[in-house]
Design a protein that fits this description.
The structure is a homodimer. By secondary structure, the first copy, chain A, is of the alpha/beta class. Chain A contains 15 helices and 16 strands. Chain A has two domains: 280 residues, Type I PLP-dependent aspartate aminotransferase-like (Major domain) (Aspartate Aminotransferase, domain 2), CATH 3.40.640; 75 residues, Aspartate Aminotransferase, domain 1 (Alpha-Beta Complex), CATH 3.90.1150. In chain A, the strands form four sheets. A seven-stranded mixed beta sheet of chain A has the order 3-11-10-9-6-4-5, sandwiched between helices. A four-stranded antiparallel beta sheet of chain A has the order 12-13-16-15, covered by helices on one side. A three-stranded mixed beta sheet of chain A has the order 1-2-14. In chain A, strand 15 and strand 16 form a beta hairpin. Chains A, B: Its EC number is 2.6.1.19.
């Protein structure tokens, strides 16, 4: 029996859309009421999570969609997963919710076993973890770790802070508050707070009117597809971008302490980075003494067929920090070098030091992915889905440009000729029973759960063929 | 029957400490193991939340302490509260944990009722809320709201962004990424990310080695105690500090878009601001077009005898934004002016837009505080406790300097002559069965739950008298 059937014996077998417009009348009514207390403008519909199951999300009108967006790529195992319900009802969970500990000062007896479960799922080469609350938070905590590490290499790990550092920092001035930068890439998305916002560079609307640090953005390689037919051009593109990275690090007015990159830029358009590029960044950052951070917030937890996408590149020696959130529900960063443990306590610290309720969910997700072999399944289903998309591309080459994600599980995307056509396709897909997201201006991105199977792919492909033919 | 007895018929009647040192041997062993996967250096002991109950926290050695620190002021109703356990077991909670929605794009039917419960608890004058994940996150989200508001007043709320803004922002440069500041106060604590870190100014260890925005810190009034005997001097102190605030706003090299203040600086030493001072800041910020933000992360949710501490000052017109976290478990900011709703969607936005599991807990806490009249109880118990501390102060004036928090519920603090004596007192109190926290260099701060009653105060006072006599 398939994993989805084991989890969800009553999962719908087809989507059902019974309203002529989306959102339907009940959603519209509900969103109008919600809009009085919340910003409901970005809502696609009002969801009914009681009725949602497995790969199907149900809305307030009873429409049931096959979900290939999965809460902006953050549902790992499907809706109302029985194993997660078990975790949610466990005594550890009740305690975590009711007696939320300040994990730094008064850690719970429950903490060590939970962290061990999470660490069993750590990327190759990483064996330590620090916990945060969201992708933005995870990245900013990683920046703090990187800045402390960078300065402690300059100062000496065990050296005390100088009086000048201790006084200037209280004025937000050097040397206590040093001018240091994090280098990121154009079209990157790493979050929307102020430091994470400064490395984010995908759309103006994310950042307008907010002060930012004057940090540099290099160029992320833009490949020609299919990859196999464009090897030389793409290698040249990698080298062009690497040169820009190196030049920026060497010439930027503020010392570059860290570099952060998504192995696949997701919000920014599903731009993939090659193994060669990601490895060359390791060589370069090692040479120049820059901390190497991989942002796996959207790419992590299995959807590419590896637990963590950058494992495809087998970077050696391993990168310094790997951040996570979304599908793992818990957030934070993995690391391996003990020098990233700050030289004193209370430097990487806050009241809660993470969310134990979400750590328990993360532990349960990790265990399920491992026990049910969901990485293998995702690779297999992704290959199946990709082949079907290839076939559609042969038929409609204009509507399936730059098809991306071959051999990367279900982490698949392609471009439409215009933003208007992309938007029309997404809208039509909903009416045909499939909830799918876009990214950047032209792309469709597929982000189903890890319980998405061939039978779901068939339903999606059928709806897609219909929508594309109607475009 | 008292509220504590209703909630906790089996609450211990006295603390029991059976190890000669704290942490005891089982805690030491557990923390050593935990230290291999987590920064356990700041831990006081390893806690056993299964056995903790009401106002008593139990550690791995079976020591049971009367808890006046309550997870750094973030437990509202006591450990294993039956009403919160009920909320934790509710179907809404299971859904929130298992099917965590992207609340902006796919809001749940459960969301509106939860937000309404939270809004019933909003500070006077505020009727809207936006959700975040922690105190630091809440403050940074409030900064984003303030910056958008400030710039939209300059630009015109409905005016489109210019091409120059849309392009410069992608380089982190003006005018799209404007140079704007938030003014805060010396000794303030507002969080430890990069913007929240820039307004935090209590201890160097929170900030060293991290880049900061060049934002100004004004002076927070430092009063003479008892307040009733020092009215003229304290009024002069208020005026001195107000002058500094005004001068900084008018002269700072970067335009000051917002001001953030704690009504009582907590981490920074339990420094209180007078009604006069907080109202004068409203007058000043209105006059100078600066957004007024009150940080109620530590002071909120009842511990001062009001739902929100700044309600004591009855500021008119109401402040612009009020941030919360900690004891409310959910985080975010309250507001009332619709111009703080950004002119376009996706400007105040992120994947999750808050944590529905914690919103459910917040709703349950709000309901309990209201139904059980816990504000009145906290005021009454606080007065009782304060009188007992006054009596101890008469006996040991050197050990109870600047006793603060009269008529502010149980939100009470005082100073020891030296940091070493303060630390010794906290250590001795633990051995005498009371878990108590410090703040700044010299202060003891009391932060019990809202179910702390006269009987608990008696136990604490007895332990305190013993510890002080042994100092």
């Amino acid at each position: 029996m398939s994993v989805a059937s084991q989890y969800y014996p009553n999962e719908p077998t087809v989507p059902v859309v019974q309203t002529s417009a989306i959102p339907g009348p009940e959603s519209v009514k509900g969103l109008e009421a919600l809009g009085k207390v919340f910003d409901a403008r970005p809502a696609y519909f009002l969801a009914d999570y009681e009725k949602s199951l497995g790969n199907y999300i149900v809305d307030a009108d009873g429409n049931s969609y096959l979900d290939l967006y999965a809460q902006i790529a953050s549902i790992a195992l499907g809706y109302n997963n029985p194993k997660l319900i078990e975790a949610a009802k466990s005594p550890e969970m009740i305690r975590a919710l009711v007696d939320r500990p300040a994990l730094g000062n008064f850690p719970s007896r429950d903490l060590e076993p939970i962290l061990k479960k999470i660490l069993k799922f750590a990327p190759k080469g990483q064996d330590k973890v620090w916990s945060g609350l969201s992708g933005a938070d995870a990245n900013e905590l990683a920046f703090k770790a990187a800045f402390m590490y960078y300065r402690s290499k300059e100062r000496g790990y065990h050296k005390e802070f100088s009086t000048e550092e201790n006084t200037s920092v209280m004025r937000n001035a050097e040397p206590g508050s040093p001018h240091l930068a994090v280098l990121s890439f154009k079209k990157a998305f790493h979050g929307r707070l102020f430091a994470s916002g400064s490395v984010t560079c995908s759309k103006p609307i994310h950042k307008l009117d907010f002060p930012a640090f004057e940090w540099p953005h290099a160029e992320y390689p833009h490949y020609q597809y299919p990859l196999a037919e464009n090897e030389a051009a793409n290698r040249a593109e990698d080298d062009r971008c690497l040169k820009i990275v190196e030049d920026l690090i060497k010439s930027w007015s503020i010392p570059v302490a860290a570099l952060i990159i998504e192995p696949i830029q997701s919000e920014g358009g599903d731009n993939h980075a090659s193994k060669y590029f990601l490895q060359a960044l390791r060589d370069l950052t090692s040479k120049l003494g820059v901390v190497y951070i991989i942002d796996e917030v959207q790419t992590g937890v299995g959807a590419t067929g590896k637990a963590w996408c950058h494992e495809w590149a087998d970077i050696q020696p391993p990168v310094d920090l790997v951040t996570f959130s979304k599908k793992f529900q818990s957030a934070g960063y993995f690391f391996h070098d003990t020098l990233f443990v700050p030289n004193k306590p209370y430097r990487q610290f806050n009241t809660w030091c993470g969310e134990p309720a979400r750590m328990i969910i993360a532990g349960a997700i990790a265990q399920e992915v491992q026990e049910k072999n969901l990485l293998e399944q995702c690779s297999r289903v992704g290959d199946y889905l990709f082949a079907k998309l290839e076939a559609l591309r042969s038929k409609y080459p204009q509507k399936f440009q730059r098809l991306r994600g071959q051999s990367r599980g279900t982490f698949i995307a392609w471009d439409l000729p215009t933003g208007a056509e992309r938007d029309a396709l997404l809208k039509s897909l909903k009416l045909n029973g499939c909830n799918v997201g876009g990214c950047a201006e032209l792309s469709v991105r597929l982000r189903p759960t890890l319980t998405f199977e061939e039978k779901h792919a068939d339903i999606f492909i059928e709806a897609l063929a219909k929508s594309v033919s109607e475009l």
